[in-house]
Amino acid sequence: MRIIDRIKEDKGPLGNYAEQTEGYYIFPKLEGELSNKMTFNGQEVVMWSINNYLGLANHPEVREVDAQVAKDWGLGYPMGSRMMSGNTDQHDQFEKELAEFVMKEAAVLVNFGYQGIMSAIECVVNRRDVIVYDKNCHACIVDGVRMHAGKRFSFLHNDIESAEKQLIAAKKIADEQGGDVLLISEGVFGMQGDQGKLKELVELKKKYGFCFMVDDAHGFGTLGKTGAGAGEEQGVQDDIDIYFSTFAKSMGSIGAFLAGNKDTMQFLKYNMRSQIFAKSMPMTQVLGNRKRLQMLKTMPELKENLWKNVTMLQSRLREEGFNLGRTNSCVTPVFLSGEVPEATHVVYDLRENYQIFCSIVVYPVIPKGMLLLRLIPTATHTPEDIERTVTAFIAIRENLESGEYKKRELKKQVLA
Which terminal residue of the chain has fewer beta carbons within 10 Å of its beta carbon, N or C? Predict the structure, then answer.
């Protein structure tokens, strides 16, 4: 079958429902300033679905710098790839500041998080190397691993016994081929909120001697005494060989970086194809993100306010008997008993009747018979937002337990 004809017949697991879901359940259109409350479908809703952890996305000081940089430099400067014509002192300085903040020798900027870690994985390994990774790693890591021409093994999520078993097999193959093992985990797993067992993996590193890469997108800025992330939180930052994070979570922006020793970062800088053949990060992002980093370093009250809300939200939900799984981060998953068809009713009810906007996850991402409501608390949320949300969740749970949602027909989106 020709490609175009095949696409017409099968639009994919989500695309097949586009007519019924687009604009409401999928690709919803949020309006207003990025904050604890936004507008959806003509109503103000409490927003739990944006990764604006520290409230920097719309902070007045950030907005002022973003606007001034755009006025001074425009959106285009510098032009060309960084290697050829797009490097500046500001890029170099930002990398130094990032490296210092996460306690590494050097850092390298990448334009986007998803693209950045994919290309970094592809760059550092060759066909003789073997990759071992946590099976719950983000899609960007999985896609990066798929690009690898050599062997790869996944271990059960946060299961150190499983990780060691896969390491033994990987190490044997790597030694036979004259290669090495790259082990990849996350600082915080963004769906269910549990931190990667970095400390235990470091113990395995001492035993088996692999290269250790950590994606700390949700830990950077939110965990650790200074905000340097999950490695700092667990006391193993020095043992992470390749540290990665984005600016899209705690800094409420776009772009990402890698950090490690000077040799590794220089290798990435000169060999990552997605960077050496792509346009340099615009000055608007470089200077705007430098401002965000400066605020992250000098305004501890941002993280303090975040964790005040995290603690309040998670405590209240647990008091009411909700299952939050094993989260030990800001990510707040709420597990409910329910079937996939009931998910649309839950979403519709929350948005239209309780003015609560949060993400919902269903099978096959989580086991059958369960629904997951994923909340991202931020420094901008209020106690009122939290109480309103807990009250709504109690009502939703009652409807699920009583079978009320099973009686209802599928709610098609009603767009204002």
Answer: C
Q: Which amino acid is at 416?
A: A
Which residue range is the domain that position 382 belongs to? 3-53+300-407
Element (H, E) at 132: strand 130-134
Q: Domains in the chain: how many in total?
A: 2
Higher pLDDT: 158 or 341? It is 158
Distance CA 212, CA 229 (A): 15
Q: 0.90 exceeded by the pTM?
A: yes
Query: Over the stretch 34-63, which tens digit does the pLDDT of each residue have?
Result: 999 999 999 999 999 999 999 999 999 999
Q: Contact 264/59 with Cβ under 8 angstroms?
A: no
**Are residues 310 and 265 both part of a single domain?**
no
Q: What is the CATH number of the domain that holds 262?
A: 3.40.640.10
Q: Judge contact between 371 and 335, C-beta under 8 A.
A: yes
Last residue of a domain, one of 243, 272, 298: 298
Element (DSSP H or E) covering residue 45: strand 43-47
What pLDDT was estimated at residue 412? 57
Q: How far apart are CA 87 and CA 79, in angstroms?
A: 9
- Domain assignment present for 412: no
Residue 416 lies in a domain: no
Mark 167-187 as b/e (b = at least 16 C-beta within 10 Å). beebbebbeeeebbbbbbbbb
- Residue at token pair 């007045």: 60
- Please list, in sequence order, all residues whose beta carbon lies within 8 angstroms of the beta carbon of residue 164, skipping any fewer than 6 positions away: 204, 208
Radius of gyration, alpha carbons of the chain: 22
For 190, 265, 380, 393, the CA distances from 56, given in Å and listed in that order, are: 19, 28, 9, 28
d(Cα 244, Cα 396) in Å, to the nearest integer?
38
d(CA 156, CA 145): 16
CA 387/CA 87 separation, integer angstroms: 49
Q: Where are the alpha helices (DSSP H) in 10-59?
A: 18-21
What CATH number is attached to the domain comprising 369? 3.90.1150.10
Percent of the chain with pLDDT over 70: 98
Q: Which tokens go with 107? A: 């850092």
The torsion angles phi and psi of 136, rounded to 5 degrees, stand at: -95, 10
Residue appearing with tokens 């690898």: 148
Show which of 298, 327, 349 is a domain's final residue. Answer: 298
Do 160 and 255 lie in a common domain?
Answer: yes
Query: N- to C-terminal Cα distance for the chain?
Result: 40
